Amino acid sequence: MSRGPGSFNVNPFDCPSSHLYVNTMRFREIPREYYSKGVSLITSSIPVKNTFFANIKSCNYLPNVLMKMEALNKGADFPVSIDENGYIAEGATENIGILTKDNVLKFPSTHRTLSGITAKAVLSLSMNLVEKGMIKEAKHTNITPEDAYRAKEIFLTGTSIEVLPVVSYDNNIINNGLPGPVSAELLRLLRDDMIYNTQSPADRS
């Protein structure tokens, strides 16, 4: 969605009407071994977006690009940002979740993150794991990097990656360097949900 044709001025009222542009391209899957072997994660030094901008889906991807560039230059697959209070926020284009040693599934508080559709779906689907006894509960809460270093499992969520296991965070090995069963089960549930369930995650109870 654009403000439409008009001037190059920052004044939005120079453009009489908004326009919707749609661009399509062939989807490029991430390497399959990412799911079987897991990926690496580092803490980014790029400042996190403030609350107002963090909750807006826009085309202002400069911080996201810098985060990804930093991670790749340091030999990691994905970055994650930290807010000014020392809590984990989000990846460049991904949400993050951790499984604690006592089997509690935690997602960062949403006041400094974009509440992703995939993350919402995963949180909803995780109730199946509570019923099965695989986890005790799932919730949004503040998470520090140290919490993640000690985690049983870490995973990333996003439209193009679905549920992606993390096996290394800031060179701390997670789950002996292997993808965990909870991440794998959430990936299976999400893929089944995308095929068989037409209800939006936002509309689920």
What does this structure look like?
The protein is an alpha/beta fold and 205 residues long. It has a single domain, classed as D-amino Acid Aminotransferase, Chain A, domain 2 (Alpha-Beta Barrel). Helices cover 28% and strands 22% of the residues. It contains seven helices and nine strands. Strands 1, 2, 3, 4, 5, 6, 7, 8 and 9 form a nine-stranded mixed beta sheet that branches. α4 packs across α7. The chain is globular, with a radius of gyration of 18 Å. The two termini are 29 Å apart. The mean pLDDT is 92.
Task: Give the arrangement of secondary structure elements.
Layout: H1 33-37, E1 39-43, H2 51-54, H3 62-73, E2 78-82, E3 88-91, E4 95-99, E5 104-108, H4 117-125, H5 127-132, E6 137-141, H6 145-149, E7 153-158, E8 162-169, E9 172-173, H7 181-196
Parallel strand pairs: 1-2, 1-8, 5-6
Antiparallel strand pairs: 2-3, 4-5, 4-7, 7-8, 8-9
Helix pairs in contact: 4-7
